[in-house]
């Protein structure tokens, strides 16, 4: 009995103890160029988990350049004059020859030149690309970090942010700083048109040939008719085919600067010593312009239900969304709680009702902040019917559960279950590694400072059953609803 009591107390107290220990360990520095640096010492292994995050994403793209943030993310791995080039003066000339050949081809196409002339210029363009390939290493940053023991080298672009992450042995700290300082100062967008082909294939796989991707694009286009959250994050096929090096480099030089970024290091670091290395390399990158005022239009309030559908050679699927505020609005946190109540685990309301009891769905999930978090966003519910049930059946059952949320207070036991889930997720983040590095970067860059990560569990613990009812009644309304349906070719829904 005593051991059981001790274990229970440990479960209850451990997150608070971890939070306090972590809060005391974090060191924050701001360089003269505006780069914010967070360091979290953890001596359990001789590894450092890095996350470099910029407040740049799909919402920052100009009309006609959809997906260029994602393209630039790819190009940041292509190296610099000193990383990847076999003969920089010759390679520089070869890259300029590619640009010239591409411009001549574009002019010929615009002027409706003869087919023979276009074929000649296409051949010249391709030959210039082949010559440049001979003068550089493929994927030089990937290869450099791989040769130095990297794990998890990757990057991702969202509507609101772009981040670069990698884990390296701690004795490779200087290597990391030298590489990324060089990239920010001297990025070379080599193999640009080869990467355009890679992105086109990525779009084909994720959006055009993937039923979930195709449905999501149609859904967001219907839900956001003014705000850029409604544009495809990867860009349209026509936009990707129209990418040119000068426009991509212009986007890079406009946005990717130390004063628009946070660098987080979690692991085997000694802050007072290692910040000197950070200053030596990252501090050499000049401050850039502040975030430009792009006048991103606010999405007008939705006043009537919107419905859209696509036909696809796949199983039927359903996607429902409701407009809602974003953080730090308290209602956004209430929506997080509703998200857990509806679909977190096998005992959640929608999973239990749709999948287990009614056997009407193969799966069901929800998200309380889609597709981004910087601006007002959507609470979404997605589900796939189990034959012979239909998407109409799922809609009816989902709306019944949402009405139940409005009309019946959530029980204390159910609220406690959500709080336990929140605590478990919180504990997983606090335990360190790449997840903690990313979370700290998020909070520092977007949520008013990394300290907010220690405050949000208390917010969730104060959310009441009455607040859940109020928020459900306010936002889960037909006029605030967007519904997208995938119809199987042949007519089944």
Key features?
493 residues, alpha+beta, Cytochrome Bc1 Complex, Chain A, domain 1, 6-stranded mixed β-sheet, 5-stranded mixed β-sheet, 18 helices, 11 strands, disordered N terminus
Task: List strands and helices in order, with pairings.
Elements: H1 2-25, E1 27-30, E2 36-41, E3 47-54, H2 68-75, H3 88-110, H4 115-133, H5 140-146, E4 151-157, E5 162-169, H6 173-186, H7 192-208, H8 211-223, H9 237-241, H10 245-255, E6 261-267, H11 271-281, E7 306-312, E8 317-324, H12 330-343, H13 349-357, E9 361-370, E10 377-385, H14 391-407, H15 412-430, H16 434-446, H17 456-462, H18 465-475, E11 481-488
Parallel strand pairs: 2-6, 7-11
Antiparallel strand pairs: 1-2, 3-5, 3-6, 4-5, 8-10, 8-11, 9-10
Helix pairs in contact: 1-15, 2-10, 3-4, 6-11, 12-18, 13-14, 14-18
How would you describe the overall organization of this protein?
The model is unreliable at 1-14 (pLDDT under 50). Helix content is 49%, strand content 17%. Helix 2 (68-75) crosses helix 10 (245-255). The termini are far apart. By secondary structure, it is α+β, with helices and mostly antiparallel strands. The protein contains 18 helices and eleven strands. The longest helix has 24 residues, at 2-25. It has a six-stranded mixed sheet with strand order 1-2-6-3-5-4, with helices on both faces. Strands 7-11-8-10-9 form a five-stranded mixed sheet, with helices on both faces. The chain has two domains: 56-155 and 168-251, Cytochrome Bc1 Complex, Chain A, domain 1, CATH 3.30.830; 306-488, Metalloenzyme, LuxS/M16 peptidase-like (Cytochrome Bc1 Complex, Chain A, domain 1).
């Amino acid at each position: 009995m005593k051991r059981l009591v001790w274990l229970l107390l440990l479960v209850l107290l451990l997150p608070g103890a971890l939070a306090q220990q972590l809060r005391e360990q974090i060191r924050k520095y701001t360089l003269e160029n505006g780069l914010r640096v967070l360091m979290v010492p953890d001596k359990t292994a001789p590894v450092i988990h890095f996350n470099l995050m910029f407040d740049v994403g799909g919402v920052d793209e100009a009309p006609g350049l959809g997906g260029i943030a994602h393209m630039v993310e790819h190009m940041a791995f292509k190296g610099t004059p000193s990383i990847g080039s076999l003969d920089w003066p010759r390679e520089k000339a070869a890259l300029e020859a590619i640009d010239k050949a591409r411009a001549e081809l574009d002019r010929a196409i615009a002027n409706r030149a003869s087919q023979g002339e276009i074929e000649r210029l296409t051949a010249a363009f391709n030959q210039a690309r082949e010559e440049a390939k001979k003068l550089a290493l493929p994927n030089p940053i990937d290869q450099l970090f791989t040769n130095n023991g990297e794990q998890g080298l990757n990057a991702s672009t969202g509507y609101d942010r772009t981040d670069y992450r990698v884990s390296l042995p701690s004795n490779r700290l200087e290597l990391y700083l030298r590489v990324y300082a060089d990239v920010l100062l001297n990025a070379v967008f080599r193999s640009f048109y080869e990467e355009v082909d890679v992105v086109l294939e990525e779009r084909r796989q994720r959006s055009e040939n993937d039923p979930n991707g195709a449905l999501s694009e149609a859904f967001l286009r219907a839900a956001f008719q003014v705000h850029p959250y409604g544009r495809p994050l990867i860009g349209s096929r026509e936009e990707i085919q129209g990418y040119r090096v000068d426009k991509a480099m212009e986007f890079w030089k406009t946005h990717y600067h130390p004063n628009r970024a946070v660098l987080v290091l979690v692991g085997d670091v000694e802050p007072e010593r290692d910040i000197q290395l950070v200053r030596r390399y990252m501090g050499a990158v000049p401050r850039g312009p502040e975030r430009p005022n792009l006048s991103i239009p606010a999405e007008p309030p939705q006043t009537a239900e919107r419905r859209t559908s696509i036909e696809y050679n796949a199983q039927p699927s359903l996607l429902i969304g409701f407009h809602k505020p974003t953080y730090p609005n308290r209602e956004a946190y209430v929506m997080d709680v509703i998200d857990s109540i509806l679909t977190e685990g096998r005992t959640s309301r929608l999973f239990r009702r749709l999948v287990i009891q009614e056997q009407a769905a193969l799966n069901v999930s929800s998200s309380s902040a889609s597709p981004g978090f910087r601006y007002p966003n959507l609470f979404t519910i997605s589900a796939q019917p189990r034959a012979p049930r239909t998407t109409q059946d799922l809609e009816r059952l989902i709306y019944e559960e949402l009405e139940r949320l409005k009309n019946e207070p959530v029980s204390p036991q159910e609220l406690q279950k959500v709080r336990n889930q929140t605590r478990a997720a919180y504990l997983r983040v606090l335990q360190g590694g790449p997840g903690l590095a990313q979370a700290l970067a998020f909070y520092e860059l977007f949520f008013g400072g990394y300290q907010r990560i220690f405050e949000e569990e208390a917010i969730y613990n104060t959310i009441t059953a009455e607040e859940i009812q109020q928020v459900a009644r306010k936002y889960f309304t037909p006029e605030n609803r967007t519904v997208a349906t995938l119809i199987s070719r042949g007519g089944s829904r």
